[in-house]
Amino acid sequence: MNTRMDTTCSTGLRSPSQITRRVTESWARENLYCVACEADRVTPLPHNSKARDFTCAKCSAAYQLKSLKTWSDRRVPDAGYDAMMQALRSDVVPNLLVMQYTDNWLVHRLLLIPSFFFSPSAVERRKPLTSTARRDGWIGCNILLSEIAEDGKIPVILQGAPVAPAVVREQYEAVRPLAEIHTATRGWTLDVLRMVRRLGQRRFALNDMYAYERDLCALYPNNRNVRAKIRQQLQVLRDLGFIGFEGKGWYYLQR
Fold first, then answer.
1. pLDDT (tens digit, 9 = 90+) per residue, 40-52?
2. How far apart are the C-alpha atoms of 66 and 81, rounded to whole Å?
């Protein structure tokens, strides 16, 4: 994987946003590979493809590329809020690739968020555009990286150095069982996993997780039995191999 981008493909363009799109997508076309299978290339999609930039011809995995100069560990601007929420409900969100590039067109960081790691809690509704905007009233969204468990933030390029594709695919495969959970309940699993990681402890107690009861009540105000839901989701994470159960209310990380 070559981290230097070729700017000659943007000759004749004047708009900074058009230049960025042309250069970064040209780089992606030559360097991206599929993480869901062994394909060493992905195929660009037409520019009018909603929320999708590339697809894998072998396994049909879809990818969206977001390119930024300034990195934020908290949020990444995305497309329309309503469209994103509908995609979540329909389980058709693409894998997200977040790129940070330098002034001299080097890829400094590339982060993969698997499609099945998105939940409503990770999508932030932005304010509607004002009447002076071209799309008056349009409502966009942000992807909250801070609300995604570390398991779902897989480095592809880190500090300008590519991670070996075998390592990236291994990390993807390790979390892929989450994709089998129905989209209606996957949000709970992802949020409980995020809070398990937030504990920062290899061994933890059920009471440690109950400390997040208020946070989960805020996310799921219609649920009146959050503690039971926490116990249920810990069992799901145990069955998927993320955690183990010692007994008497104690758990431990498996990975």
1. 999 999 877 777 8
2. 16
Which tokens hold the place of 234?
């810990």
CA separation, residue 41 to residues 31, 115, 160 (Å): 7, 18, 20
β-pairing verdict for 95-101 and 62-68? parallel
Closest of 48, 72, 63, 175 to residue 124, by C-alpha: 72
**7-72+92-118+143-172 classified as CATH 3.40.210.30:** yes
Q: Are 143 and 78 in contact (CB under 8 A)?
A: yes
- Rounded to whole angstroms, the Cα distance separating 228 from 133 reads 46
Say whether 183-253 and 7-72+92-118+143-172 share the same fold. Answer: no
Write the CB contacts of 114 (distance below 8 Å, at least 6 apart in sequence): 35, 95, 152, 154, 172, 175, 176, 178, 179
- The token pair at 140 is 């966009």
184: tokens are 């209606």
Average pLDDT, the chain: 94
* Second-level CATH architecture of 183-253: Orthogonal Bundle (1.10)
**85-143 pLDDT per residue, tens:** 999 999 999 999 999 999 999 999 999 999 999 999 999 999 998 877 777 889 999 99
